[in-house]
Amino acid sequence: MTLNQLLVELDGYKENEEVIVIGATNFPESLDKALVRPGRFDLKINVPMPDLKARHDILKLYLDKVKCDPNLDIEPLARSTLGLTGADLANLVNQAAIQGSVRGAEFVTQGDLEMAEDKIRMGPERRSLELREKNKEVIAYHEAGHALVSLYTEGSMEIRKATIIPRGGALGMVSFFPERDELGYTKKQMLAQLDVAMGGRAAEQIIFGDKEVTAGASSDMKGATGLAMSMVAHFGMSEKVINIL
């Protein structure tokens, strides 16, 4: 009955009551057709993820509420937080404040913010995980492989950080700075991503040999496979597909 009454109000039978109905959803494709038919929700506004300037302003808004290092630079953090929502950014500042308080610091530093971002993206540090020296060596070469390929591949993004500190399900990671928020990646940039993804496995093969490679490249292979399939099936970037068309 509540739903039916809402639909009646949306039809505008009682215009003199000056009722405005506002709805929000993350899944518009799942809404009932009776709710979204013409005449009910007349204006639809898409709210995308915050862009670079928006992330900068959101971070500044929340950082103004905590005591920060006077030399704090928000710009690198705004660049590296591509894909995070406003709520994520608020959580990032909160986690950084907690980190500073645990250290007994007087103010939040750049390092606190970077650690908070790593925690949000990859999970907390796995301090209890004990790795053998051999494992650390393999992980270090693997991540160095990603970093080196990125440095020497045209179209790759700037490296932000390379680490072998285990977090979440990852034993190490190389993260990147996008130069700007890309509205559409080029074929060169996508091929660079594929090259960088293969850099870890390539480093293992060069240093330890084909028979000593590990399963550490599993997520790299999965991501590269998905990107390659999209390039061929969705973006028409395969020469063979173009020739067939």
Automatic annotation (TrEMBL):
Protein name stated in the entry: Uncharacterized protein
Gene3D superfamilies noted in UniProt: 1.10.8.60, P-loop containing nucleotide triphosphate hydrolases, Peptidase M41
Cofactor(s) named in the record: Zn(2+)
PANTHER family given in the database record: ATP-DEPENDENT ZINC METALLOPROTEASE YME1L1, METALLOPROTEASE M41 FTSH
Annotated ranges, domain AAA ATPase AAA+ lid: 72-114
ATPase AAA-type core domain ranges (all copies): 2-48
Keyword Protease: yes
Domain Peptidase M41 stretches: 131-241
Keyword ATP-binding: yes
InterPro entries: AAA_lid_3 (IPR041569), ATPase_AAA_core (IPR003959), ATPase_AAA_CS (IPR003960), P-loop_NTPase (IPR027417), Peptidase_M41 (IPR000642), Peptidase_M41-like (IPR037219)
